[in-house]
Design brief:
By secondary structure, the chain is mostly helical. The protein folds into 3 domains: 59 residues, no CATH class; 82 residues, Tyrosine recombinase, N-terminal domain (DNA polymerase, domain 1); 165 residues, hpI Integrase, Chain A, CATH 1.10.443.10. Helix content is 52%, strand content 9%. The strands form 3 sheets. The protein has a 3-stranded antiparallel beta sheet with strand order 5-6-7. β3 and β4 form a beta hairpin. α5 packs antiparallel against α6 and α8 runs parallel beside α12.
Length: 370
């Protein structure tokens, strides 16, 4: 049994009843909460009246005020988490994210050294600008700077979403660098010939096949590394890009052209389900940086050229420049989700159309002479 007390402006009423809630007013607001058990807490009307009086005048907190104080203390403790601790929590929640490896590198190289020990609530725009200026001074590309600042922004949003901070300061600003996403990496015919020569001489024939496949299909790095033998249909000449490893999380198919088919048939089969297996047969190849760097240097490719990613661009650029492939067909071959992503190659396609149009000059001139 609990003691219920009703407060009005001039009278206090007491009554014993089997209820867990009590009502009283404080600052004109009706508050409902327990005051104590009659037997358990040895509660009497006089004792209850004294407690209520102290709560009303603010000498002791109400139950709601106690709960709010505890909530604020917990929030304060969370908001004092350093960015290093926050990132460890973020890692745990993002462990299935394929980009986590890149996030770790960005955090350890560019974020932890400057704001790793800083509390989340202490972050300022000046901190963001300090990281940005340092990276620019080191010669990092606008895209790299943008990736790092975006990661900080994601961490702040993660802290907000999970209750580590109550709000993001209105003064906190992320000035993202302008990135020209339309820049493409396109190899010349001479560079492609040299690259193919180097691949013929490459000691790692499996990796050489992977690089050739990148050039002749334009497949993404993740699609190449995760390619399994069951994804290949040599009868229908198609390659399945599985949704579980695809960028868009959607299964798609691309044609297996003659060059790609020849390359895939030349790859030696093992007990692994993967076309390009790693050290463990049940896992795909992961670390291919050393091979890509070796091939790039032997072929004399530009320092700025990014193997695999650059080969995908070359594949698209050559097709667009041929004038024999529409932008819609190119979009499908590259598995772009939007035609806007394929638009970067439009100028090459336009040049091919201009060349085709100029043929009319020779045609009409020839007719006149006849």
């Amino acid at each position: 049994m609990y003691l219920t007390i009703f407060y009005s402006t001039s009278l206090v009423f007491f009554c014993a009843e089997t209820t867990k809630k009590d009502l009283y007013r404080k600052n004109g607001k009706l508050i409902e909460e327990k005051v104590g058990g009659q037997f358990k807490d040895n509660m009497t009307p006089a004792k209850a009246s004294s407690i209520r009086g102290l709560r009303i005048e603010g000498s002791i907190p109400t139950n709601n005020e106690k709960r709010e104080r505890i909530r604020q203390e917990k929030l304060k403790e969370k908001s004092s988490y350093s960015f290093i601790r926050l990132f460890s929590l973020f890692e745990e929640s993002e462990r299935e994210n394929r980009s986590l490896k890149d996030d770790r590198i960005r955090f350890s190289l560019h974020i932890a050294p400057l704001i790793g020990k800083k509390a989340i609530s202490e972050l300022t725009t000046q901190d963001i600008e300090k990281i940005r200026r340092k990276m620019e001074k080191e010669g990092k590309s606008p895209q790299t700077v943008k990736h790092v600042l975006t990661l900080i922004k994601r961490l702040v949003n993660y802290a907000l979403k999970n209750g580590y901070i109550e709000s993001v300061p209105a003064t906190l600003h992320f000035d993202m660098p302008a990135v020209d996403n339309k820049v493409t990496e396109n190899l010349t015919a001479k560079q492609v010939a040299k690259l193919l020569q180097v691949l013929d001489e490459e000691e790692d024939i499996v990796m050489a096949s992977l690089i050739r496949l990148a050039l002749f299909t334009g497949m993404r790095r993740s699609a190449l590394l995760n390619l399994q033998w069951t994804d290949l249909d040599f009868e229908r000449n198609s390659i399945m890009l599985r949704g579980d490893v695809a960028k868009k999380k959607k299964t798609e198919y691309i044609p297996m052209n003659e060059q790609a088919k020849a390359i895939l048939l030349s790859v030696p089969k093992t007990t692994s389900p993967y076309v390009f297996p790693g050290r463990d047969d049940d896992k795909p190849r992961v670390n291919i940086t050393a091979v890509l760097k070796r091939v790039k240097e032997k072929a004399g490719l530009p320092e700025s050229f990014r193997p695999l990613h650059g080969l995908r661009h070359s594949f698209a650029s050559w097709l667009a420049n041929s004038g024999q492939v529409s932008m819609y067909e190119l979009q499908k071959l590259l598995t772009h989700s939007s035609p806007l992503m394929t638009q970067r190659y439009a100028h090459l396609h336009d040049e091919a159309l201009k060349r085709a149009s100029n043929l009319t000059t020779n045609l009409f001139t020839t007719k006149e002479k006849e």
